[in-house]
Design a protein that fits this description.
By secondary structure, the protein is mostly beta strands. It contains 3 helices and 38 strands.
């Protein structure tokens, strides 16, 4: 079935003149046209419970930052479960996890008291466009270090959590308050979502600073119409705070999606120092309006003393085509109150990020944009040139929110899980048995050693080395030989040579004997059919990695067939043209 579909896609690509795979990248024409389904996934033989997005790299460059891992939180209607995921520069899995069945947002690596932690938000995101939950901090063994909560009995919002150099945390918080709605056209008091900045002492959990948007902004300052909000239990989201940053002066910079503005706040008094963008903009735009016309923006950060970076969505659900989404780097002059564009960053496919999104300035000078609602991330050179462009869902499905990640960031990370490696015996593409091993979260494994013994209770001295190989992506395979002992296990080895962990012994013969009769091919009783744990589940088209080569051959044959047909048609047309010409010429003479 998949091969037929692949054939059709290649035929379509040949006729339309579009290549199925450009030579300068790993672009997959079939991927972008749902050949793998609406949410392409990779699953594993040694860890069948894990699944991660299958990436399509449309453009790549050696100039992209390859020493860091990519962190994202895939979720949406087409995903089986929300997850926090870390991938390496090749798109191979490093670590993935769910968290108590909750929605997950904003996976980062942050430093606290000299140690690095994975941080992410977990909770309920179906709360009027924001969230009610807690912040999770995991140490480098993936053990829970701390649950961070908002102060005064409020819930931590999903939009931002930043640990400061002082060891405090910045949290976005939403709270319903009653407000006179006359300034937005209603003649009564009704519910409004107020947006709060809380700075929390991580040791005590107490707030050391709090700021409320409604104390400084009017409802009429925003661009979002109230509609049916402000009635009953439908609170009006007039501000929609989505990022907080604190600078060396101790002041706060926050982004408001519905004000189309950034607010710079005095860290002592809470008074507004200045506003950039929106109806109350205080800056003179030196770039013909392009420095202050950002809209529905996210992830505003300081980048030096006079530079601000923004993910400028430019669009939202109701206005999807009014602008092109861009990354924006601005230079501001607070003395003369001017602002100008330094660099704009546009995706080569002009993606419209209708919600969410991220802007990260990398240490090598590159810029990484995550497109939120659109399942894509792009890395740029500092001057705006596109270096690497990646999708984790077909572009034809962008905007549907079926697969998305609030932000996408890159960080260095070293993980030492307390679990042990996972292993399994499965039938490989040659229809013989292989031993597969992986270790979720282990970043320091350099090689794997396959060991054998004739007893499951063997001492360490009784385990014999059978084979060794370098770690090959998340999952590494060893082919099983008939001469191997009855029990097998794998040893994870560090680059310096010491052992990191050992998998549980597997009883080879017992596993072979337990092959279910319904997994035997009816055409050949000696040949096991496809093991279900070998499937790449793709929500529409399921195929095994052992069958990829079949699909590739089908695609190649299809391409040659189409070219042959087109050549034959061209030759036939040319021959017909010559005979007609000769007949006309003869009759005229």
């Amino acid at each position: 079935m998949w091969s037929s579909w692949a054939f059709f896609l290649v035929a379509f690509g040949a006729v339309s003149g579009r290549p199925s795979k450009p030579t300068d990248s790993s672009y997959d024409f079939g991927y972008e046209h749902d050949a793998y389904g609406s949410h392409p996934l990779t699953v594993f033989k040694s860890a069948a419970e894990l699944e991660v997005p299958k990436l399509d790299v449309l453009q790549s460059s050696k100039l992209c930052e390859s020493s860091l891992y990519t962190l994202l939180t895939p979720r949406g209607g087409a995903t089986r479960r929300p997850q926090a995921t870390i991938l390496d520069s090749n798109g191979d899995l490093i670590w993935t996890s769910e968290w108590n069945g909750q929605q997950l947002y904003n996976l980062m690596v942050q430093e606290y008291k000299g140690e690095n932690y994975l941080t992410f938000w977990a909770g309920d995101d179906a709360v009027g466009g924001h969230g009610a939950g807690i912040i999770i901090m995991l140490d480098n063994t993936y053990t829970l270090f701390k649950e961070v909560r908002a102060a005064y009995g409020l819930d931590a919002d999903l939009h931002d959590f930043r640990i400061t150099k002082e060891g405090t945390a910045l949290i976005t918080v939403y709270e319903i308050v009653q407000r006179d709605l006359s300034e937005v056209g209603k003649d009564h008091v009704g519910p409004v979502w107020d947006c709060l900045i809380q700075e929390i002492d991580l040791e005590s959990g107490l707030a050391i600073f709090q700021w409320r948007a409604l104390d400084h902004w009017n409802l009429a300052d925003g661009y979002r119409e109230i509609g049916g909000d402000g009635e009953g239990d439908r609170a009006y989201d007039f501000f929609h705070m989505n990022s907080i940053d604190k600078d060396a002066r101790g002041n706060y910079l926050t982004s408001s999606r519905y004000m189309h503005a950034l607010t710079y706040i005095n860290g002592t008094t809470g008074e507004v120092i200045w506003i950039l963008g929106g109806k109350r903009n205080m800056f003179r735009d030196l770039s013909n309006g392009t420095a202050t016309n950002f809209a529905y923006q996210h992830d505003a950060r300081w980048s030096g003393n006079d530079t601000i970076t923004i993910f400028d969505n430019g669009v939202d659900d109701l206005h999807r085509d009014i602008a092109d989404t861009r990354g924006l780097k601005l230079k501001i002059d607070e003395q003369n109150m001017t602002v100008e564009v330094v660099t704009e960053y546009f995706n080569p496919h002009k993606i419209h990020g209708i919600s969410q999104g991220s802007f990260q300035s990398l240490s090598n000078g590159n810029v990484l944009l995550g497109y939120g609602n659109a399942a894509a991330f792009t890395e740029f050179a500092s001057n705006g040139d596109v270096l690497c462009d990646t999708h984790f869902r077909p572009e034809s499905r962008f905007g549907s929110a079926e697969v998305q990640s609030y932000r996408v960031y890159k960080y260095e990370w070293h993980g030492w899980p307390k679990t042990i490696p996972s292993s399994a015996l499965r039938i490989n593409s040659a229809r013989s048995w292989s031993f597969y091993v992986s270790w979720n979260g282990a970043t320091e494994v350099s090689k794997w050693i396959l060991q054998g013994s004739n007893s499951s209770n063997a001492t360490e001295d009784e385990w014999t080395e059978l084979n060794r190989t370098k770690r090959m992506g998340f999952e590494t395979a060893f082919e099983i030989r008939k001469s191997y002992p009855s029990y097998l296990r794998a040893v994870a080895v560090h680059s310096e040579g010491h052992m990191l962990g050992v998998s549980e012994p597997l009883d080879v013969q017992a596993i072979k004997d337990e092959v279910s009769p319904d997994l035997i091919s009816p055409l050949n009783p000696q040949r096991p059919a496809i093991d279900p744990t070998q499937l790449h589940y793709t929500y529409g088209f399921n195929f095994t990695d052992d069958e990829v080569w079949i699909a590739q051959i089908a695609m190649a044959c299809g391409g040659f067939l189409i070219i042959g047909v087109l050549l034959r048609m061209g030759i036939a047309a040319w021959d017909t043209r010559r005979r007609a010409y000769q007949r006309v010429s003869t009759e005229a003479s």
